Amino acid sequence: MILTKEQQALLDGAQGETMAKVVKTLVMYGEAFGAERMVPVTSKYGHTVISFGIGVMKPVYELYDQLLAAGAVSKQPFSADPRPLDKNIPSSFLQDVVFKFMYSQQDRYEDQLRKLGLMDDNAYTCACYLPQAGNVPQRGEVLSWAESSAVVYANSVLGARCNRNSGIIELMGSIAGFVPEFGLLTDDGRKADWVVELRTSRLPDAQLLGSAVGMKVMEKVPYVKGLDKWLGTELTEDACAYLKDFGAAAASNGSVGLYHIDHLTPEAVDAGESLVRENAPVYVVDDAELARIKNGYPCIWKDLNATPKLCFMGCPHMTLSQLKDWTVRVEEGLAAAGNKKVVIPTVFTTAPGVAKEFRQTEYAARLEATGVVLSTICPLMYMNNPLSKKMPVITSSNKLRTYTSARFYSDEEILAKITREGK
Amino acid sequence: MSKTFQGRVVTPGETTAPALVSHGGFNTLASYQMALMFGDKQVKCGDQNNPDLYKKPMIGKALCLPETIGSTTGGMVLYTACAMGKQPACLLFSKPIDSLAASGAILAANWTDASMPVVDSLGEEFLQYVQDGMTVTVGPEGRVTVE
Fold first, then answer.
1. Considering the entire predicted model, what is its pTM?
2. In this complex, which of B76, B84, B98 lies closest to A167 when CB atoms are compared?
3. Topology of B3-146 in CATH?
């Protein structure tokens, strides 16, 4: 890798041993992928995936202490993934004890984040790219982000450029102010390796389609044809919400960092099918294929017929339009079933900025009246302990399904369960 | 009978260990989170979506895999496992390494004392040949012998 004089000086220790190790880490990271140079991080804000003060992650906090002691802080303010705890979420006494034990380092870690450059105390969301969250990169900007769902959205829907960086590495890129140029930062790396042809009878569940695509193409870039028939050719709020969930599922069920949607996402609109590599394989998705994918999900509940004790919606965090839409859907579902409140305790999660704006609308009181709890936590963090793992929790998030014992149902199935069936 | 495969060194080192094979993508967060969080000494794989590895001990094994998948906490998780001495003996990839696994390996090499050689690009035949329990030796310059 060819470094500039300034970068070489940093590597040689001009700003101390710790900064030299930061740069060495980035150089090795780039060399693993054949990067020939570093490029400046050009976005206004960064984003870190690590937001949870789990006691066992002591090595991470010690590393961050080293960075702070050396004055190696982020050159750009950054947002962070959601906090892990919220006292409004239904939990047992035992769970509360476990949470307290698990997240014993939360205050210490949040203090570290503030010192390293966190945007503000409300900057905790996985959907940092939502307008209300205030971290919306521009097309072509180079990012040093981590959080699989945020990276795939920034690359695909916003046209920014970011690799699927890991936690810690993303912070090091923001500290150095530069990242190695490879993969999704290059024109060639953004070409499509797969064509996905959609032949379904209706708009597929975003979380299910994303899962199917992710499991098929893994880390490759898919070019999806046929989705514009259902989503249109404008990036409306509804289309963006759909793509948020589609991308999160593709990123967690596979490792997709970028997708193109024919006639819809910015690079596909500009370049069309010229983005597709020669002889790219084709994956046909029809109703039968989606059913096959859904039926193949394992469920690790001990009692497969257990009555769900909790339902989580909003992984990744819901948009304002999704919150409004779901308020209406829950109201209508309850009315049709003759119920006043949801029959399974249900939590909708969203970004703090979105929650604030939502609470200023008439929908907030209406949602509250249905019994649904609005929260800004990370459901994944709630689920990551043996007690929650044993709980029969349901979700329509394919990301939450992948990482926890939560059982996946489609949006329609979830609506029926929380408003009518209760099981 | 043994067979030798040639790969590329991502982080250096030599070791011999029993093989543990994942034919599908290895989800680092899903595999490690419960074991690390609750002090499982055997570091059993917690990823219910990985039938090859689910509930199998991973510590000290030669982890043979195509690539890692899933959350971008992956590298941080691998780094934490290494810092806690709960890492596999080595990581052996049939494909070119992905960005999350590379991050974890490089963070561990630079910021911990752990030894975890990582070799990638061993080829599809490597994953077809190696089976759980076989003895795997990582030699110099990315040479991996399976017997």
1. 0.93
2. B76
3. Glucose Oxidase; domain 1 (3.50.30)
